[in-house]
Amino acid sequence: MAVLLKEMQADAPADSPLDQDINLLRQQVDVCKSRLQNLVSNADRRRMAEPEVLDAEVWLAGLSSAG
Questions:
Q1: 19, 24, 43, 53: which has the fewest Cβ within 10 Å?
Q2: Which residues, other chains included, contact 19 with Cβ-Cβ below 8 Å and sequence gap of 6+?
Q3: H-helix or E-strand containing 12?
Q4: Can you tell which superkingdom this protein's organism belongs to (predicted)?
Q5: In this predicted structure, what is the pLDDT of residue 67?
């Protein structure tokens, strides 16, 4: 998407409504990219962390009190 927007921006007249729309889309793509990178980073950290070990009865009790 970013590549397409860059190409579209090269073809759009400067400071035109189309150029403004392309800039807005580019900002949204950048925000999306950043959020996806954060999600991946968090998932990687969780995967590398020590798993929590709980007794099955304690875990089940936690489920019933959460709902």
A1: 53
A2: 9, 12, 13
A3: none
A4: Bacteria
A5: 57
Pull the structure tokens for residue 48. Answer: 């590398």
Number of structural domains found in the chain: 1
What is the span of the domain harbouring residue 32? 2-66
Helix extents (H) in 1-67:
2-11, 17-48, 56-66
Nearest 5°: phi and psi at 51? -70, 145
Give residue-wise pLDDT tens across range 15-63: 999 999 999 999 999 999 999 999 999 888 888 888 888 899 988 998 8
Residue 11 has which token pair?
Answer: 């073809």
Total Cβ atoms within 10 A of residue 25: 16
